[in-house]
Amino acid sequence: MAVTLSLAPQTLTPELGKRVLVVWWSQSGQLEKVARAFARPFQVAGHDVHFVALRPITPYPFPWKITTFFGEFPETVLGRPAPIAPLDAPAGPWDLVVLTSQVWFLSPSQPFAALLSGPDRAVVAGRRVLTLVSCRNMWVSGWRRLVALTEAAGGRVTDRVVATQSGSVFASYFTTLAWMLTGKRDAIKALPAAGIGDETFDRLDALGTIAAARLTDAAPDAPLLADQPTASISHVHTFGERVVGAIFPTFAHLIAAVSRPGTPLRHVSAFGMLAFMLTVVIGLFVPFLIAERLLRRWTTPWLDGLARLPVSHLSPAAGVR
Question: CB 99: neighbour CB atoms within 10 A?
């Protein structure tokens, strides 16, 4: 059953309610739905919740073209995002800031990179921050970079929630790409529709309910969801992230050095990146699977450690379940 976003009567008095800022950016509408599904229980509990959408100066297209999406690869990986408009948010301070970000090329999406490297990064300075990441499956590298940007801006990341797509991970490589290029979740009729399933929205609602209840009395640096499973991790794909992601900066520097966005040479490089990624998916998935299985004894603690919040007092229970 789908999660509804209707609100129930408030149960907190204004004196007990906290101020919550939810920042999101969405093209298809899925990320907005993720943000609102998680934040709905805060509204139900009587917290003062404000939703703010990031606004790129030049809107990104949706559906994308191959040349435009893969043409954004260098700037995304190198942390050189296109500018966004000033954040249209009410005056703080905020008791909780929820950053709802996508992952592009194992990195935070450019609008969030622009937010956290621009003048409006002050919105997280000195504040408790919950990172709410939504992506196909490979979230660890992008989330870690999002945390690093947030902490560099002065935010205190206490919690992490991840919403990934349902169904076959292998099939989602192709269905997600088709969705981005056509705007249709069911563009490949022979495979399950792309996108996040209803069960994930139910989980977001449940986690939001717990976090909303605890926010009222929680200390400023105390995690809200340390005892909850807040993400799932595929060790095979995280292993692949570390292997493939290590060469992304080299590719990005090379492409950025010889081309600019929108130029013919950048279009050529975009098709090259698409070919590379399809080669990785089709040609290296099985080798990654075998390597991860053979090295599991040594890689499992490492991969689990990568996915934990880098906060010293966070309990081990906050690791990935």
Answer: 28
